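#structure-requests
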Amino acid sequence: MITQSSPWHAYAAQITDRPTGRLPVPRRLQWTTHPATGPGAEAFGISVRGRHLLELGCGPGHSAAYLAGRERAHVTAVDLVDLQIRRSREHYGHLPDVTYLTCEALRFLRHSGGRFDGVYSIFGAIGLTDPAVLLPAVARRLNPHRPLVFSVPHPHRRTGTIPTTRAARPRADVLALPDGTRHPLVRWELDVAQWSTVLARNGFRLSQAQEFTDPRRPRSPATLLITARRV
């Protein structure tokens, strides 16, 4: 379990909404950095009704609640920060088809049972864990020909360029909190060609890549949304 000294616990303590008790089920699935941009559940490419889905890095639980509460999917949502999971359960634990678990994504994939009809990550574990390690673990838990969908920060968002190397290497980044503190971390910020290559090496075929901007900065792409299929 992540201790309170973790930057991700600090992020949860400062960023996560704080209402207590039940919250209404969200009206939209949000893949991007700005509300009401991008697709909804159609990003999966299949009807998710009755499907068993896994979210890797669920944060405050809104996306899992939407998919269980409005799309009638059966959702298992994991996050490594127990504070996030406690809040998710407080807000949405009454929903019958969603389960929130405190667990690191790779550990869950390697050590729990069951298979899924779809796996997704919204600025979650994918992009923060070496894809050469995480994606094979996802493939083992995902039924054949089923979707993996994830949104990550766009690699062009800061400088307009990416490194010329084609290797899927991490880049240094920082986690900036409202109190002004900045915590170093690394992200795998890959372009579409790099994601296509690393997915193909680990049991997936790229289906679609979509780029979305923040309306406040329309010339700079902010989110890269990837849909792939397990082969």
